[in-house]
Design brief:
GO cellular component, one term: plasma membrane
Oligomer: single chain
Bound molecules: heme C
Order of helices and strands: HHEEHHHHHHEEHEEHHEHHHHHEEHEH
Helix content: 40-55%
Keywords: Cell membrane, Heme, Iron, Membrane, Metal-binding, Repeat, Signal
InterPro entries: Cyt_c-like_dom (IPR009056), Cyt_c-like_dom_sf (IPR036909), Cytochrome_c-type_DH (IPR051459), Membr-bd_ADH_cyt_c (IPR014353)
Strand content: 5-15%
GO molecular function: electron transfer activity; heme binding; iron ion binding; oxidoreductase activity, acting on CH-OH group of donors
Cofactor: heme c
C-alpha cells in the first residue's frame, strides 16, 4: 500500500513537469507559426545570410533608411530583458521599454489588433524558441527633424488605431479569421493600402474606403486587393488567391517584387484553413478605386492578335514584345502555367500605378521558391538592352493588347523611376 502511494507520488512529480513542458512546447510552436504569419523574420533579418531575427535590415522610407532591431532573446543586444507587458506594448503601441518610440516602419498600427492569446504565444516563442544573438543591430540615423522620436507620440495620437480586433457579428467565423489575419498579423495594408502625407495608412479595416486599394512602398506598387474586375481581384477566385499566397502562382499570376519575399517568408507557411479564410475575406471586399479593364473578346483584342500574327505590328511595342518577351509570356500573352505569368488580363499589368512594372523590367526578378510549389524562374533585366522609350513602349503594348485596357506608360515615367532607383 505504502509502495503504491510512493509510486503514485513519483509518477505525479515526474508527469507534472512533463505535461507542463508539453504545454510550453505547444505554445512556442504556435508562436513560431504566428511569427511566420507576421513575417517578423522578413524584416528583422539582415540580407545575405544574417542571423535570424538579429536585425540590421535597412528599410527605405520617405524619411531615410530605418534599421530593424535585434529581437532575439539576448539580454543586451536583443529583447531578452523584455517582460510580457514590454513585448506587447512594443508590438501594439510602438513603444520600447526604455520609452523609445518606434517608427511605424514596424507595423505596430496593425499589430495593435493581435489578441492576447496570440501575443502570449509570440512572446513564448521569442523567449524560448529563438537563439540569442549577442550582436547589436546598427542604429538608425535619420536627418533632423525625423530623428525626433518623441514626435511619434503625436503621430500615434493622430493616426495609430488602438484596441484588439473586434469580430463582426454579421459575418461568420471563417470571414472573421481572414479579416483578423489580414488586418493584424499579416499587416497586408502596410503595402497594399495607400499612405497619406504623414506616411499613415489610409485605413486599417474594410470600413475605410481606401483600405487595401493599392499602395507604393520602396518603389514597389502593391495592387488593389478589392473586387475591382480590372486591376483588382474581381476576376480571381478564392482558390486562385489561396494558391497564389501558398506558392506564388495562382490564376495565371506569379508573385514578383516585394511580394516574392512575403510568399517565401510568410504566406507559404500558413495552413490551408488560414489561406482560405484570407481569400474569403479578400473576396468579400467590394470593388473600390477601379482602374484598367479586360475584355478578351473585344475588337481591340482581335486587332492586336492579328497585328502579332502577320508580323506587321501596328505599334512599336509589338515588335519589342515579339523579340524580347514572347518567348516566355507567349505571343497571345497567355504565359505558361506554373512557369511564366499570363499578361493578358493580369491585374498587376492593368494597375493605374505602373511603378512595379517599370521596376521589374529595369531590374528583372524571379518567381518565389516555396515548399511544394513550382521551381524558381527568372525574369531578365532589360536595363542594358532596351532604352527608356522602348521599355515604355513594350509595357504600353502589354497594357493595351489581348483585351487589356490601361493607360500608356511614358518615357518620362521610366526615366524618373530609373533615377530614383539609381539604375
Ligand atoms: C515590415 C517590417 C517589420 C515587421 C514585419 C516586423 N517588424 Fe519589428 N521592427 C521593425 C523596425 C523597422 C523596427 C525598428 C523601429 C525603430 O527603430 O524605430 C522594429 C522594432 C521592433 C521591436 C523593438 C525592439 C527595440 O527595443 O528596439 C520589437 C520588439 C519588434 N520589432 C518585434 C517584432 C515582432 C515580434 C514582429 C513579428 C510579430 C515584428 N517585429 C515584425 C520592422 C518590422
Ligand atoms: C512588403 C509589401 C507587401 C506585403 C506586406 C504584402 N504584399 Fe501582396 N503584393 C505586394 C506587391 C509589390 C505585389 C505586386 C506584385 C505581384 O503581383 O506579385 C503584391 C501582390 C499581391 C497579390 C496579387 C494581386 C494582383 O492583383 O496582382 C495578392 C493576392 C496579394 N499581394 C496578397 C497579399 C496579402 C493577403 C498580404 C498579407 C498577408 C500581402 N499581400 C502582403 C507587396 C506586399
Ligand atoms: C526568360 C523568361 C522571361 C522573359 C524573356 C520575360 N519575362 Fe516577364 N516574367 C518572367 C517570370 C518568371 C516572371 C515572374 C515574376 C518574376 O520573375 O519576378 C515574369 C513577370 C513579368 C511581369 C509581372 C506579371 C506577374 O504576374 O508576375 C510582367 C509585367 C512581365 N514579366 C513583362 C515582361 C516583358 C514586357 C518582357 C519583355 C520585355 C518580359 N516580361 C520578358 C519571365 C520572363
Amino acid at each position: 500500500m505504502k509502495r503504491a502511494v510512493l509510486y503514485l507520488l513519483l509518477a505525479v512529480t515526474l508527469l507534472v513537469p512533463l505535461v507542463a513542458g508539453a504545454e510550453d512546447a505547444a505554445l512556442v510552436a504556435r508562436g513560431a507559426y504566428l511569427a511566420k504569419a507576421a513575417d517578423c523574420a522578413g524584416c528583422h533579418t539582415a540580407p545575405k545570410g544574417g542571423a535570424p531575427f538579429a536585425g540590421g535590415l535597412g528599410m527605405g522610407s520617405p524619411f531615410g533608411t530605418i534599421m530593424t532591431s535585434n529581437i532575439t532573446p539576448d539580454p543586451v543586444a536583443g529583447i531578452g530583458k523584455y517582460r510580457f507587458e514590454d513585448f506587447a506594448r512594443a508590438l501594439r503601441e510602438g513603444v520600447a521599454p526604455d520609452g523609445k518610440h518606434l517608427y511605424p516602419a514596424m507595423p505596430y498600427p496593425s499589430f495593435s489588433k493581435i489578441d492576447d492569446d496570440d501575443m502570449r504565444a509570440l512572446y513564448a516563442y521569442f523567449m524560448h524558441g529563438v537563439a540569442p544573438v549577442p550582436v547589436a543591430a546598427p542604429p538608425t540615423r535619420l536627418p533632423f527633424p525625423f530623428d525626433q522620436r518623441w514626435a511619434l507620440a503625436l503621430w500615434n495620437l493622430a493616426f495609430a488605431p488602438s484596441g484588439r480586433y473586434a469580430p463582426r457579428t454579421d459575418r461568420d467565423a471563417q470571414w472573421n479569421r481572414g479579416a483578423y489575419l489580414v488586418q493584424s498579423l499579416g499587416h497586408c495594408g502596410a503595402c497594399h493600402t495607400p499612405r497619406g502625407p504623414a506616411f499613415e495608412e489610409r485605413g486599417y479595416t474594410e470600413s475605410s474606403r481606401r483600405f487595401l486599394t493599392g499602395g507604393t512602398n520602396d518603389h514597389w506598387f502593391a495592387p488593389n486587393l478589392t473586387g475591382d474586375p480590372g486591376a483588382g481581384l474581381g476576376r480571381l477566385g478564392a482558390a486562385d488567391i489561396a494558391a497564389f499566397l501558398k506558392s506564388g502562382h495562382g490564376g495565371g499570376q506569379v508573385a514578383f517584387g516585394s511580394m516574392v519575399q512575403v510568399v517565401e517568408d510568410s504566406t507559404q507557411y500558413l495552413n490551408d484553413d488560414d489561406l482560405n479564410a484570407i481569400a474569403v475575406y479578400l473576396k468579400s471586399l467590394p470593388a473600390r478605386e477601379s482602374a484598367g479593364a479586360y475584355a478578351p473578346r473585344s475588337l481591340a483584342a482581335k486587332v492586336s492578335a492579328q497585328a502579332l500574327r502577320t508580323g506587321e505590328p501596328a505599334r512599336p511595342g509589338a515588335g519589342i514584345y515579339l523579340a524580347y518577351c514572347a518567348k516566355c509570356h507567349r505571343a497571345d500573352g497567355g504565359g505558361e502555367p506554373r512557369k511564366y505569368p499570363r499578361l493578358a488580363g493580369n491585374p498587376a499589368v492593368l494597375s493605374a500605378e505602373t511603378t512595379s512594372l517599370v521596376r521589374l523590367l529595369v531590374e528583372g526578378g524571379n518567381s518565389p521558391e516555396t515548399r511544394g510549389g513550382p521551381k524558381r524562374e527568372k525574369m531578365p533585366s532589360f536595363a542594358g538592352q532596351l532604352t527608356d522609350l522602348q521599355i515604355a513602349q513594350v509595357i504600353t503594348f502589354a497594357r493595351t493588347s489581348w483585351g487589356n485596357d490601361a493607360r500608356p506608360v511614358t518615357q518620362r515615367d521610366v526615366t524618373t523611376l530609373r533615377h530614383a532607383l539609381h539604375k
